[in-house]
């Protein structure tokens, strides 16, 4: 199962939607009878499809490739329902903010000094400024004029960093986009906005984070009598206390549906998860499993998050308390997603990783593009960059054991790009399974912290770990024949 469309020296062009739809979301609903059947997807416990077929639909310009779904073969055989992620969440045909013609990706990377980038950012501020009304005071006007000329230290640091990486990002992205156009994965023609309406409300299901808070009021579990892992099967239902007090595992070859507070969530095959907040990580530690890969997407503190009541965040001190050393195997690869604030990047490299005995090896960039191959934001935009940073490092330990673990594994390159069409859902990051595979041995144990979705072969933890597994984010792929 791979999400990589093209691999070049610069990095990878990744198909996020295709990856999700290759995760094996196939459910056996009921037994089929010759005179018809009503598919029962109202599952109160868990259901499974023990099928050896895990093939799934892949996306193309014409939509999903039809597959053998909802087909009834013969009397007494199970009917299968295959779910695919809603395409409209990846329908990014035009940039969110259009770049000037001379600043578009296909024009090539123009040289720009730091001074020129500052001037460009000043022009952007001026263009974005709302028109002043008659009632605006002179003092207010002066304040706005002054803002155009002054950068705070954080903005200066960000500009300095951007001036160092912009050429690598621009040229690498252009090479990968050209390959995508050649293969037909991307299309240069400007697509008309999709007429499909997103029928899924912005907030669906119950509030998982709020549920984790409520779970703290549940009676304490006796760990000596309580199993560390709850395995989903067809015979027993899953209680809400089980979901909130131990790691839940789907070890089968098919997907399952679990119900929580009246809401249904799809669990892919060969995956496990723990739904809890940072104060209830003990069940993960109780499994006594060591992980070879740990991907972390912390809820970083920033001004917009502080102003919003929708998103919680952690301080740097709280992030340092995550027990990565207790979860990491020798030579574990640690990958941390970082926002474009230099304060956070410096914290990860200079404080967080040393605190965890992790040696920084590389900085990669996730670049967000449209289906036509343009940046979703102008590359030189001051406030909205079309890229995010990943900091990669390895846990340091016994030298002999580290060298033995490193045998037959390629070293981590200092810089790579992961280029993809982003999901419109907030913070739904692209999968790293395909791009990290060549730097890892087969059959490694993988863990994602602060996850919002599940992946086959991974353990996922977070207080919204089932968020993008809600069944309303998927649609049933039907066979019309």
Helices and strands, with pairings:
Elements: E1 4-8, E2 11-14, H1 16-21, E3 26-31, E4 78-85, H2 114-128, H3 138-149, H4 153-183, H5 208-215, E5 229-231, H6 240-245, E6 247-250, E7 256-260, E8 263-267, E9 271-275, H7 282-286, E10 291-296, H8 303-307, H9 316-320, H10 324-327, E11 328-338, H11 342-355, E12 358-368, E13 387-395, H12 399-406, E14 417-420, H13 433-436, E15 446-449, E16 458-462, E17 474-476
Parallel strand pairs: 2-14, 5-6, 9-16, 10-11, 10-15, 12-14, 15-16
Antiparallel strand pairs: 1-2, 3-4, 4-17, 6-9, 7-8, 11-13, 12-13
SS element count, helices = 13
Low-confidence stretches: 31-75, 305-310
Strand order of the largest sheet: 1-2-14-12-13-11-10-15-16-9-6-5
The strand count comes to 17
Give a short account of the largest sheet.
12 strands, mixed
In terms of DSSP E residues, the strand content is 15-25%
Radius of gyration: 24 Å
How do the SSEs run, as a string of H and E? EEHEEHHHHEHEEEEHEHHHEHEEHEHEEE
Question: Strand pairing plus helix content: what structural class?
Answer: alpha/beta
């Amino acid at each position: 199962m791979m999400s990589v469309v093209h691999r070049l020296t610069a990095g990878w062009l990744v198909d996020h939607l295709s990856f999700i739809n290759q995760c094996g979301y196939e459910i056996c609903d009921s037994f089929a009878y010759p005179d018809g059947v009503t598919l029962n997807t109202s599952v109160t416990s868990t259901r499974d499809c023990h099928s050896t077929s895990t093939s799934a639909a892949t996306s193309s310009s014409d939509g999903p490739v039809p597959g053998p779904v909802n087909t009834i073969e013969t009397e007494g055989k199970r009917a299968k329902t295959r779910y695919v992620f809603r395409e409209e969440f990846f329908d990014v045909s035009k940039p969110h903010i259009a770049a000037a013609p001379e600043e578009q990706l296909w024009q090539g990377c123009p040289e720009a000094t730091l001074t020129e980038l500052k001037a460009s950012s000043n022009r952007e501020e001026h263009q974005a400024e709302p028109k002043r009304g008659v009632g605006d005071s002179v003092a207010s006007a002066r304040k706005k004029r002054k803002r155009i000329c002054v950068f705070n230290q954080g903005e200066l640091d960000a500009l300095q960093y951007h001036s160092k990486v912009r050429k690598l990002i621009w040229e690498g992205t252009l090479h990968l986009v050209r390959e995508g156009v050649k293969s037909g994965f991307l299309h240069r023609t400007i697509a008309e906005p999709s007429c499909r309406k997103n029928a899924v409300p912005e907030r669906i299901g119950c509030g998982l984070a709020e549920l984790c808070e409520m779970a703290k009021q549940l009676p304490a579990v006796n760990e000596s009598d309580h199993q560390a892992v709850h395995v989903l099967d067809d015979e027993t239902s899953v209680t809400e206390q089980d979901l909130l007090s131990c790691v839940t595992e789907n070890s089968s070859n098919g997907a399952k549906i679990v119900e929580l507070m009246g809401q249904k969530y799809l669990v892919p095959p060969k995956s496990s998860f723990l739904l809890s907040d940072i104060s209830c990580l003990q069940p993960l530690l109780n499994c006594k499993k060591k992980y070879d890969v740990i991907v972390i997407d912390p809820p970083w503190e920033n001004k917009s998050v502080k102003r919003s009541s929708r998103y919680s965040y952690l301080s740097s001190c709280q992030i340092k308390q995550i027990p990565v050393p207790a979860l990491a195997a020798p030579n574990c690869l640690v990958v941390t997603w970082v926002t474009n604030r230099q304060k956070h990047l410096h914290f990860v490299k200079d404080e967080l990783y040393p605190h965890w005995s992790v040696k920084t090896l590389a900085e990669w960039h996730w670049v967000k593009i449209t289906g036509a191959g343009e940046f979703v934001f102008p590359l030189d935009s001051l406030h909205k960059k079309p890229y995010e940073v990943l900091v990669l490092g390895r846990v340091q330990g016994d030298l002999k054991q580290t060298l033995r673990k490193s045998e037959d594994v390629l070293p981590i390159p200092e810089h790579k790009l992961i280029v993809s069409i982003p999901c419109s859902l907030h913070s739904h990051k692209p999968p790293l399974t395909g791009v990290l595979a060549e730097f890892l041995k087969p059959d490694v144990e993988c863990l994602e912290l602060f996850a919002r979705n599940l992946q086959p072969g991974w353990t996922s933890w977070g207080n919204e770990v089932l968020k993008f597994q809600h069944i309303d984010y998927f649609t049933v792929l039907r066979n019309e024949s």
